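Quick question: who can interpret this fold?

. . .
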Amino acid sequence: MTGGAPPVTVRAGRFSVLVERRTVAVSLTLLGIALLLAFVGLSHGSTWSTPPEVFAALTGRGDSAVVILRWRLPRVAAALVFGAALGLAGAIFQNLTRNPLGSPDVIGLDAGAYTGALIAIAVLNGTSAQLATGSVLGGLLAAAAIYLLSLDSGLNGLRLVVTGIAVNAILTALNSWIVLRAELDVAIAATGWNAGSLNGVDWDELYLPFAVVGVLALALVALSNAMHQAALGDQLAVTSGVGLNRLRLLLVLVGVGCTATVTAVAGPIVFIALAAPQIGRRLARAAGVTLLPAALAGAVLLLCADLVAQLLLAPVALPVGVVTTAIGGCYLIWLLIREVKRR
């Protein structure tokens, strides 16, 4: 905890957690920015809707109700929920590795989820259920491979990150090989899906992923106190009664579940899980990576990137993954230089 004003207690049923006042203020600010961007997203389309038209549509009235509720709202909701899920996944793995580079898209979990989904597309029929199952299994197998290759250091440290980068490179090469060997129509579909896009998402595709992300978020809330104790050091965590092995296993399952759920619907979307936790931590001036600012920063980043993707070459909407990849490359270079200088 940081100095200054005493923390406040947030209660939900029998669960309670201490939160720094600055974290609460930052979270409310990020929530306000997210809602403002969501309103802009609901207003944008082939023609811009006025604020009264958007408010009327949200209550089911007006000529624009069908367009805004059925076409624009699913996209905006997906950006908010999936951005939050990626922010949470990044916070989990950056806490586990205690390294700002330890995010799912850097250490190979996104690539593993994509491998599983690619196999579902190329070998099976590529239904939504097969994509979801393939993504989760691919992400879990990638996590297991990284853990086994990093046994000497467990789930900690720079070695795990470096191992994850190596696994990411291998899986990326494997994914390219699968696409090259696939039938032309399958390869085109897989390559387009690999860009990461929210174009064309509708409610039918989102009900189950939203439910899964909601369950995983609730599980993470239940594990948050133990996770923050573990972030202070293994010895202190064990002394306070935290079962590290069980905790790490559960956190990995939640983190992979969040990443794989997003990948199954929208394809791999990089940068959000890498940057959102660090942006949230710096804004909150917290000692470790905090969950709520990370989730809200992820929602703001993905929604903002999706708006840029729609406006940059309008009326053509770019895949949001193109925008996040371009920004993420610059951010990753800056982060690597900063890490090297610090060591």
About this structure: DSSP finds 13 helices and two strands in the chain. The first strand starts at residue 8 and ends at 12. The beta strands are 8-12, 15-19. Residues 22-341 form a domain with the ABC transporter involved in vitamin B12 uptake, BtuC fold (CATH 1.10.3470.10).
